[in-house]
Design brief:
The protein has about 300 residues and is an all-alpha fold. The protein has 14 helices and no strands.
């Protein structure tokens, strides 16, 4: 595939648009919870800002990953994952530096108004998100901490912060339900990282990159992939069932949970069958779609309980 250096198409591919669903799902769930708990009296401006911030920071993280992995020699000819912009010469290192600077600044500009809706604490949260973008690729992913960071920054932080910001000012807070849903979201999104590290197990082992998959081995990684997705949706079902019994609520969309369960477990079986090699990139795409399906299904289930 011929890509002109530093072209719009090159930047589009470097942004990895398929990963943006993982950034959108936590925001979707936070908005759905706020919609239900506020009887549809949500603040929609912070909801939009949260979504834009999540997308820009995801792109920023992808640029940082692309730049530093190539700089450290991780994106060589043995790489099994999708092609990367710097390694392929689609984007020069100098241009990528500027891309990182611009997306980081843009994320800060988008996120700063959230302090108006949630207080100065949101600035601290924003700084942590920016640091996460850089520390994940440069340090923490080599220490097996990537999965913890995914749980935090693709689950607990975005779901709870979105919920807090979108609720009416007089009702702002974080409920136990929001915390449980945020954990469920983080578990499901982590299936993407588990699969990515499962595919790269041998390369990471040679490079001394001690991911969780390297620590526990590929067979246990397969089991963990399966367990995380199922535990995530079971948590959503459990939270919904509790609401039904405690508040005499109901959700006509609860049966849709079975859709995600079928898709996730079917993808898990395909993952096991393939086992290794570049063909796992196809499973990576399916996992991203499954995560988006989880977000849609879970959001509908939650919204369906609104009075």
């Amino acid at each position: 595939m011929m890509i002109k250096t530093n072209s719009i198409k090159a930047w589009f591919l470097a942004a990895r648009p398929v990963t943006l669903s993982a950034a959108a799902v936590p925001v979707m769930l936070g908005v759905a919870l706020a919609y239900k708990d506020s009887s549809a009296n949500c603040q929609w401006v912070p909801a939009l800002l949260c979504l834009l911030f999540a997308w820009v920071m995801q792109i920023d993280s992808n640029f940082v990953n692309d730049f530093f992995d190539f700089k450290h020699g991780n994106d060589d000819e043995t790489r099994l994952g999708p092609k990367r912009a710097c390694a392929e010469g689609w984007i020069t290192m100098k241009a990528m530096k500027w891309g990182i600077i611009i997306t980081t600044l843009l994320g800060c500009i988008i996120g700063l108004p959230l302090a108006f809706y949630g207080g100065k604490e949101m600035i601290i949260v924003g700084i942590c998100c920016v640091l996460f973008c850089f520390l994940y690729t440069t340090k923490l992913s080599y220490l097996g901490m990537g999965d913890i960071l995914v749980l935090l920054f693709f689950g607990i932080v975005p779901v709870c912060c979105t919920y807090y910001l979108v609720m009416p000012e007089t009702m702002q807070g974080v409920s136990l339900e929001a915390v449980l849903v945020s954990v469920a979201c983080g578990l499901v999104v982590d299936t993407l990282l588990i699969l990515n590290n499962y595919r790269d197990h041998d390369n990471d082992l040679r490079a001394g990159k001690k991911t969780l998959v390297v620590h526990i081995g590929k067979k246990n990684a397969e089991r963990l992939y399966c367990a995380l997705g199922n535990l995530g949706i079971i948590t959503i079902i459990g939270v919904t069932t509790y609401e039904v019994f405690q508040h005499e609520a109901s959700s006509m969309f609860l049966p849709l949970a079975s859709l995600y369960i079928v898709l996730h477990n079917r993808t898990y079986m395909e993952m096991k069958k393939i086992g290794e090699g570049r063909e796992l990139n196809r499973i990576l795409g399916k996992t991203a779609l499954n995560i988006f399906c989880f977000g849609i299904v879970s959001s509908l289930i939650i919204i369906g309980m609104a009075n």
